[in-house]
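sry for the spam today, last one i promise. struct tokens for design, 311 residues
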């Protein structure tokens, strides 16, 4: 009897040992990541603000001769190109170049700012520009330094209200030095790139504030048509709008005047409807539009100026 019990116990141990060896011989389960998908590099989609950049003006006397053409000032164009390149690099804006600054300002003053087709208008000017050359002459060596200083002023105007929301001036400086010994070494003439560097240095000090001010207010767009052909919004793919996106339609708040400051402003809007993007069309950021459907709520299709759209 004891022998049978012992044999049974040995059998159980052998079976258990085999099962254990089989279990540990198998690879443990693993989670395999999908190839080609880098989750760390996926950036959240952002809607882009439309920013119109008016032509810079050159308020200095530098480079102005008898045949000076204000509309084609090379230094002002230089500053405009630098600013637009830096704003474009941020990836937050659709930039619209508007060269007729006087006309833009007249539209803002008349309350027709929406005709500009942008959320903000940036106006700039070069307020200071100068260069100097200094040098040192020694017995066996000489040194020549060229320095350029530039001042740039920026104004940002909220197109919907016509108010200046940001105004600042900054200065930049660039210099280069050449040395020669016993007549050997650099004898460079005026370095034309210094003006680029000085203007760029001044704009660099303003760009972060420009970006922050222009993105501080919630993104919005407008209903440009609502009839039997459908509800059409301004803006499309270039602004980050996608098919299936849902937005809220707001009715504008009334305008009130602060008796202490004399400033007239608009109260917060009231949400009245939900809309969904069905399709997008248009060839350029200026002509893109989105066709949407009404998900819920109602609005007056005969008074579209009383509404705006936000995420």
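last one done:
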């Amino acid at each position: 009897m004891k022998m049978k019990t012992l044999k049974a116990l040995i059998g159980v141990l052998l079976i258990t040992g085999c099962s254990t060896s089989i279990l540990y011989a198998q690879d443990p389960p693993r989670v395999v990541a999908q190839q080609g998908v880098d989750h760390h590099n996926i950036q959240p989609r952002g809607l882009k603000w439309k920013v119109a950049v008016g032509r810079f003006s050159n308020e200095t006397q530098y480079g102005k001769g008898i045949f000076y053409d204000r509309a084609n000032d090379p230094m002002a164009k230089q500053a405009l190109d630098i600013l637009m390149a830096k704003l474009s690099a941020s990836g937050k804006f659709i930039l619209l170049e508007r060269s007729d600054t006087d006309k833009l300002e007249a539209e803002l003053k008349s309350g027709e700012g929406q005709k500009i087709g942008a959320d903000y208008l940036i106006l700039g000017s070069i307020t200071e520009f100068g260069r100097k050359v200094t040098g040192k002459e020694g017995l066996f060596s000489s040194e020549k330094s060229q320095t350029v200083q530039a001042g740039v002023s920026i104004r940002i105007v909220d197109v919907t209200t016509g108010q200046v929301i940001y105004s600042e001036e900054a200065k930049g400086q660039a210099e280069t030095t050449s040395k020669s010994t016993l007549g050997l070494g650099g004898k460079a003439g005026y370095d034309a790139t210094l003006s680029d560097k000085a203007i760029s240095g001044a704009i660099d000090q303003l760009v972060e504030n420009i970006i922050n001010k222009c993105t501080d207010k919630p993104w919005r767009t407008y209903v440009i048509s609502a009839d039997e052909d459908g509800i059409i919004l301004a803006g499309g793919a270039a602004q980050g709008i996608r098919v299936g996106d849902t937005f809220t339609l707001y009715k504008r708040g009334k305008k009130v005047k602060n008796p202490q400051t004399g400033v007239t402003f608009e109260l917060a809007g009231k949400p009245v409807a939900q809309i969904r993007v069905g399709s997008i069309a248009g060839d350029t950021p200026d002509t893109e539009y989105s066709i949407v459907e009404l998900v819920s709520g109602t609005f007056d299709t005969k008074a579209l100026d009383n509404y705006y759209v936000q995420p």
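The chain has four helices and 15 strands. ok im logging off now
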